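pasting for ref
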Amino acid sequence: MRLGAALLLLALPLAVAVWAVGNYAAQRERSNADEQLAAGLTAAAGAYRNELADAARRARRLAGTHRVQRAFLADRQGELRRIERERGDVRLVRGTSAGTGSSSAAARMVPVVARGRTVGWVIALVPFDRDTVRRLTETAGLAEGQRLAIARGGSVIFADAKHPAETHPRLRHAGDLRTGGLGYRAVAMLLNGRAGTELLALERSSRIDAAASSARWRVTGVGFGLIAALLAIAYSLAPAIARSRVTRQQRDQAEHVLDHVGDGIFLVDRDGLVRLWNPAAEAITGLRAGAVCNKPAEETIPGWASLAALIPVASKPGDRDHDLGAETVPLDIGDDELWLSIIGVSLAEGTVYAFRDVTRERRLEELRSDFVTTISHELRTPLASLHGAALTLREHGDGLDSWTQHELLDMIAVQSRRLADLVEEILVTGQLDSGSLRVVSEPFDPEELVLSVASATRLRVGEETTIDVSVTAGLPKVKGDAERTRQVLTNLLDNAIKYSPTGGRIDLAVETEGERVRFLVRDEGLGIPLGEQERIFDKFYRLDPNQRRGIGGSGLGLYICRELVRSMNGRIWVQSDPGEGAVFMFELPVAERVPRAA
């Protein structure tokens, strides 16, 4: 009787607990559905921002083409309409104002600037229609059962249909919505801040209710079934339960530590199946645990058959009997190449591998190696010229005519200056990296600086190259470092000369742009491919690394320009079409204007 009463007293709270857990499981299922809807909406919002960003990029590219600029300058309306028909998703508007755009689409407006003024606007449109919903659905990666829609003007626009909205959820909160005779659970957010135009993530209410009910009865059914078994074996398995609890706690602690370790860790069993794939492994490789675990390593890890043979495997952790160290191996993930430092340890269940991402270190080492090779080449030419000229003067100086002696001395001066410039670039780069470069911030006259830089540069170019200067009247003083700005302008002019091997005209201009002063260097040289225009400002990067065009350089000049301009609170960028020259621009803030005395 005592045992029966004890079991009854134990069973009653367990039954209540099971029922409560079942209700909690149902509520949790609903909460998970709401969270997944919120996550789906966030993903859709990211996809929508990408749509807008793509539209802006299309607008910028189109605005920068000579075809559009010439059409606006000549006011050729027929050509503008033809371009609109070819593109389909853009509008070309002449004038200094683009207007307010369309209420049926999001717009990204980019000015068309030609000859220093705005002559029109390129407006890229992202309409609020079924095609946009379909594209967002394809790219957002929604969970199973979720849909996207746009609510606008009392209607809900799906990828395949449009229905009137009977009810509407609150923004950013999960709520119920009815449309097309069906009930949905939905979350919403404004699109582009437009009142009445919202992006919705939805899931059928009946589906969520069925999942919640299934979770409740699944938990309660299992719970009631277990209560009887647990009561029957409670006394006999009490010690085992205690040991299992300790083991579980240890396992949970190990899993918790494993989930938060910084190195990627995975286990491949004796059959070649991946049994463990920790979060760090996911983060480093981009391969999800669900797509890797319990599947053959050769099918889920790219190139595993060849990689496994390269990875050293120790017989036990910290094995000192064998001089084993981590091996650096390449792993191709899609179009990306990762370099991993990896080592394995053999266990009874298989082999545990630990790795870390050394791609950045590898690329930096490659850049350093390329830099050493480049610098060696850049040093060899002036050193050979200096050595040859000095040796000729020492051994045959008395027998040389004055013209030849003058030419040799000029060569020594030019090559010495080239060496000095190269050393200066290396020193400045080191100071920029260490943060020890001193940059002052004081007012200076931009016109005087531009004119002096142009005069000094003209002395170093041949007759095939002309340097024209354009200065806007009434320029304010610039707040920055005059000498560092001179260094930036000189670097950009030298770059324009170097990448204009056949000569031509180089324009040097300075103008006011709001509360900033803009400096421009325009050439008629080789130009820069669109895909390279962001990378040319990276350290050690060169457009012609193999010098197929005979254009040398250390790959540091534009990096120094970017960092110097940034250190003076400015920005620098380039616009170019291949074969049509390039325009380098940078802006510096205007110095505080001193009011005139009354």
